[in-house]
Amino acid sequence: MTGLANAAPHVPDLSGKVALVTGAGRGIGRAIAIKLARHGADVSIVARSEADLNETRARIEQIGRRCCTIAADLTEAEACTAAVASTVSAIGSPDILVNNVGAAAFKPVWEYSAEEVDWHYRVNYRAMHLCSNAVLPHMIPRRIGTIINIASSSGKKPYKHQGPYCAMKAAVISLSKVMALELREYGIRVHVVCPGAVDTKMADAVHPERDRTGWMQPQDVAEIVLDLLALPEHLTVDEVVMRRYLADPM
Ligand SMILES: NC(=O)c1ccc[n+]([C@@H]2O[C@H](COP(=O)([O-])OP(=O)(O)OC[C@H]3O[C@@H](n4cnc5c(N)ncnc54)[C@H](OP(=O)(O)O)[C@@H]3O)[C@@H](O)[C@H]2O)c1
């Protein structure tokens, strides 16, 4: 064991903090929402399925934290603004926003219709941009806040049959860095996390045939999100690229 492996991890105390996590009905978003609650945050969660949201909420309330569920389709611009407004009135102004909502289809570039291209833009990029826009008026005056955008390794390198998804995740990575630059003077931190394959329903839909042995779990991404929230004030991490150990480096 090295000294580093033995080093005590920083554990953030999120008591009194409010977090908004999009796409938290299942998968990575649910794991992040529960992780933040375990560390003291009250959490607002958004997805379309009320049944999934209720299951996440039950897990958060079991921990003893407040949870506000918002059943909404974040491909609608107004839903992004409304999700932030509902969070503010139910549990307070968000200190943390995790833009996790995202989705993908899987086919050759030339087979995507105009509607499908638009959908990829709305669910992967626009929801992230508009939820951030809606939350910032609650962070900027307080000079506090962290925004964590969940992008993907698909934004770092090309994957066959994921054209619009790769392109939109690259856009998420790019916007995250512009946001980090513009928001630094307001004391707001912005990070982007780029996971490789994670064992979730989304992966089921895109790669039903693949063997999942050794794949990352939603919990692994949640751990990284927590680590980002534990960074000391004098430093930041712009981008985290994570992969299962046996996958190729990116
Ligand atoms: N799984 C992977 O291999 C992987 C790898 C890298 C990055 N990511 C990224 O990680 C994030 C989470 O992925 P995941 O694998 O956890 O996906 P998932 O299992 O499909 O979960 C996605 C969550 O987002 C919600 N959602 C989807 N479309 C929505 C919409 N239009 N409006 C509101 N909520 C919506 C879903 O609930 P409803 O369907 O009920 O709305 C669900 O709660 C995504 O941004 C994805 O791109 C995933």
Throw out a few tags for this protein.
7 strands; 8 helices; disordered N terminus; 7-stranded parallel sheet; single chain; alpha/beta; binds NADP nicotinamide-adenine-dinucleotide phosphate; 250 residues; Rossmann fold
Number of domains: 1
**At CATH's second level, what is the architecture?**
3-Layer(aba) Sandwich
Q: What is the gyration radius calculated from CA atoms?
A: 17 Å
- Estimate the global geometry from the Cα principal axes: globular
> Can you tell me the CATH superfamily?
NAD(P)-binding Rossmann-like Domain
Number of strands: 7
Strand order of the largest sheet: 3-2-1-4-5-6-7
Please identify the top-level CATH class.
Answer: Alpha Beta
End-to-end gap: 26 Å
> Strand portion, in percent?
5-15%
> Which regions contain 5 or more consecutive residues with pLDDT less than 50?
1-5
